[in-house]
């Protein structure tokens, strides 16, 4: 057995040959300073459609990104063939820092967090007033996810020709959330409702969420008529739930206005396992100063919470505190409760 002395020459050290004949692995990654900037429009089985300047480019994620995945709305840097021609493929080499993230889990017990959309300014929560019946708990969960991810919420209530909106709007009045009420006839005849919704979307990137059958994709089709997606499925008469017709998130340029619409698949649950309840208070700037006297790790729904005294002193509307606590309790309740 060979023994190495104190002054061993490196040439004497045996090295294992590289049988594959390729270059040795290194932690040094190329900078790709000449990479082009783009935006991810949709993702389909590992292939990402990106907008680069005025053309769509098919791309795949570079190996050096590891497990970091790009999602719809991501700003990315690409190299390779950026012509957008058929059968060409570019590589995504960088994913830029995200300004906002909409996340969800399958349920509250599932630790696997899924990023639905990145860099959206606004979350449009689409809910039917009837057929199917509105589910306030699901709306609450979407609101919590929006506040946690840095998105501003917008309520879009559909099918007002089947039921009045006042009862549902009263439930969210204290949150001061902007809203639009639409009917089925308006969407199909003249698109007047789409015009009212468009006023809230101009100049912004808006992600649309809602459970199946509420008319979400019908609304998106009215907003982006030149990129019509298959309309929503028929609502099941037994379960009251619709059939999924949007199978992947897709970013579309807003018609007749500067902005983007991101249509997402219909959801039947919106898990909040990833949400830190302490971040939800940031969406209530009128209540946040009152938490300074709270005990450490206060849930804001306990006996020693300083918010009770803050509201009693007249610093904020009591309805706002009730709304905050209802949202914080959402994670402990199922959507159907």
Architecture blueprint of SSEs:
Blueprint: E1 36-44, E2 47-52, E3 55-61, E4 75-80, E5 90-95, E6 101-104, E7 114-118, E8 122-128, H1 136-149, E9 152-158, H2 166-171, E10 179-181, H3 184-188, H4 192-201, E11 205-209, H5 216-223, E12 250-253, E13 260-263, H6 307-312, H7 318-328
Parallel strand pairs: 3-5, 8-9, 8-11, 9-10, 11-13
Antiparallel strand pairs: 1-2, 1-4, 2-3, 4-5, 6-7, 12-13
Helix pairs in contact: 4-5
Give the overall silhouette: globular
Separate helix tally: 7
Tally of DSSP β-strands: 13
Q: What's the end-to-end separation, in Å?
A: 73 Å
Structural class: alpha/beta
Order of helices and strands: EEEEEEEEHEHEHHEHEEHH
Average pLDDT for all residues: 83
Largest sheet: 6 strands, mixed
What proportion of the residues is helical, as a percent range? 10-25%
Q: Order of strands across the biggest sheet?
A: 10-9-8-11-13-12
Q: What is the chains' assembly state?
A: single chain
Strand content: 15-25%
Question: What are the segments in which pLDDT stays under 50 over at least 5 consecutive residues?
Answer: 230-246
| Rg over CA atoms | 25 Å
Task: Tell me what you see in this structure.
β2 and β3 form a beta hairpin. The protein is α/β, with parallel strands linked by helices and 337 residues long. The N and C termini lie far apart (73 Å). It has helices spanning 136-149, 166-171, 184-188, 192-201, 216-223, 307-312, 318-328; strands at 36-44, 47-52, 55-61, 75-80, 90-95, 101-104, 114-118, 122-128, 152-158, 179-181, 205-209, 250-253, 260-263. 18% of the residues lie in helices and 22% in strands. α4 (192-201) crosses α5 (216-223).
């Amino acid at each position: 057995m060979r023994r190495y002395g104190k002054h061993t020459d490196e040439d004497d050290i045996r090295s294992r040959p590289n049988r594959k004949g390729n270059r040795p692995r290194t932690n040094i990654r190329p900078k790709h300073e000449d990479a082009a900037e783009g935006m991810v429009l949709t993702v389909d089985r590992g292939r990402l459609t990106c907008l680069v300047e005025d053309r769509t480019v098919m791309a795949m994620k570079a190996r050096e990104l590891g497990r970091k995945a790009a999602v719809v709305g991501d700003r990315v840097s690409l190299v390779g063939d950026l012509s957008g021609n058929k059968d060409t493929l570019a590589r995504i080499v960088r994913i830029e820092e995200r300004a906002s993230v909409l996340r969800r889990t399958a349920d509250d017990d599932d630790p696997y967090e899924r990023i639905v959309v990145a860099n959206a300014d606004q979350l449009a929560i689409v809910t039917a007033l009837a057929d199917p019946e509105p589910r306030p708990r699901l709306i609450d969960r979407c609101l919590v996810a929006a506040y946690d991810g840095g998105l501003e919420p917008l309520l879009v209530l559909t099918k007002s020709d089947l039921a009045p909106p006042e009862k549902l709007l009263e439930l969210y009045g204290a949150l001061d959330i902007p809203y639009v009420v639409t009917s089925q006839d308006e969407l199909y005849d003249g698109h007047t409702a789409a015009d009212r919704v468009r006023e809230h979307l101009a100049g912004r990137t808006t992600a649309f969420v809602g459970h199946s059958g509420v008319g979400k994709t019908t609304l998106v089709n009215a907003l982006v008529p030149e990129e019509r997606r298959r309309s929503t499925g028929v609502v099941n008469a037994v379960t009251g739930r619709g059939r999924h017709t949007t199978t992947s998130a897709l970013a579309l340029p807003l018609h007749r206005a500067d902005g983007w619409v991101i249509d997402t698949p219909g959801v039947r649950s919106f898990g909040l396992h990833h949400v830190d309840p302490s971040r939800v208070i940031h969406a209530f700037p009128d209540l946040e100063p009152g938490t300074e006297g709270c005990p450490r790790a206060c849930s804001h729904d306990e006996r020693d919470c300083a918010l009770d005294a803050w509201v009693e002193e007249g610093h904020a509307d009591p309805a706002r505190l009730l709304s905050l606590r209802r949202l914080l309790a959402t994670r402990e309740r199922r959507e159907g409760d």
